[in-house]
Amino acid sequence: MKGGLRAVFAILAAATAFVSCDPMGPGGPQDLAPAFPVFRVDLFEQNIIDTFGSQSVGFTYAIAVGGNLQRHGAGGNASLAPDPTRAMAATDAMHVASISKTITTIAVLRLLQDTPAVGLGSAFVPYLPSGWSPGTGVSGLTFANLLRHESGFDFPANQSRFSHADLRTLISSGVVGDSSNAVYNNSHHSLFRLIIPNLLGRSQGSSESEEEFYARVFNEYVNEVVFAPLQISASLAPAATPNLYYAFPHNDAAGLGTGTNWTYTLDPGAYGWYLSAVDLAKILVYLHETEDLISASMRDAMDQDEMGYWNSRTGEHGRYLMKAGSWGYTVDSVTQGVQSIAGRFPAHVSAAVITNSRPAAPLNTANLLRDAYDASYE
């Protein structure tokens, strides 16, 4: 199974066969219509193309069924004039933004799985940097509190990125709200880039700062337990010739042809990974179809509490585990950026879409992907 999955995802240009949707099997009676709706991967693909292609400068997508990559592709442009114009490619890597939280969640659960003395209910304070002074209530918070966004921290207003110094201030400020209430914030998964290296027992190198040490070890560990086993090449910085990010609709006159050079080498965890839609679908396949990343019991805990799936939805066929990402910056009072969505659906379906633009009112990508899936049955 393991080798077969890798082979399918490695040969992206090869044609893939449809999973048979006929409950009678090939060659079965043709005069009996199914008594229940049947998932059609071709409809799902077309729904994604129609939905996201009409609302973005460029987009990529991937759909897997069971252990097989069934569809992947791209539409629109990776860059537009006055930049050098280039069409979007199916394997283009873009900043997946907050879907990085799903990846961090997998890495944390894997470390807990391999460290029996520490569990989801364990306090994380012992694994903060030495010399930090936790404020009121922080010592009672657990790994699960962070993964479920239940901390009660005093979140800085409108802050998206969290540096090493920002996290130290957050910890010293302490708990000010009810930690039983879930409040989504990038600080929670950013803290794991401090916790993981200390839980691993790693030591800081003599030639690096404390900030560099924690970011480096975090990056190395996520690569070791998530990306490397799946032969995924991930980066915390854009490619030498990166995809560019736009407002939608694109307006040359507004000066929005400029690219971006976001780099997250020192502050990963809640955001930061540059991956393709195929990479995201592959991660979901291995997470749900194998135990190569985490055990079935850890996966069940992740699914049950929707850890790493903040944007899940209930659709016509059950609960859809989903995580969305959105990242932007402002030029001439117009926000341009990226939006992403990855989801796990019934019928062993995994899917991901990344767009390189944002409308003035960002897309509700979770609702759009839910609706595209629901409309894929006949």
Write the layout of secondary structure elements.
Layout: H1 2-10, H2 41-53, E1 58-65, E2 68-79, E3 86-87, E4 94-95, H3 100-113, H4 143-147, H5 164-173, H6 187-190, H7 192-200, H8 210-227, E5 246-248, E6 274-275, H9 277-289, H10 296-304, E7 313-315, E8 318-331, E9 334-345, E10 349-355, E11 357-359, H11 365-374
Describe the 3D structure:
The protein is α+β, with helices and mostly antiparallel strands and 378 residues long. The protein folds into 2 domains: 2-98 and 232-374, Beta-lactamase; 106-223, 3-Layer(aba) Sandwich (Beta-lactamase), CATH 3.40.710.10. Helices cover 30% and strands 18% of the residues. It is built from 11 helices and 11 strands. It has helices spanning 2-10, 41-53, 100-113, 143-147, 164-173, 187-190, 192-200, 210-227, 277-289, 296-304, 365-374, and strands at 58-65, 68-79, 86-87, 94-95, 246-248, 274-275, 313-315, 318-331, 334-345, 349-355, 357-359. Strands 3-2-1-10-9-8-7 form a 7-stranded antiparallel sheet, with helices on both faces. Strand 7 and strand 8 (318-331) form a beta hairpin. Helix 3 (100-113) crosses helix 8 and helix 7 packs across helix 8 (210-227). The two termini are 30 Å apart.
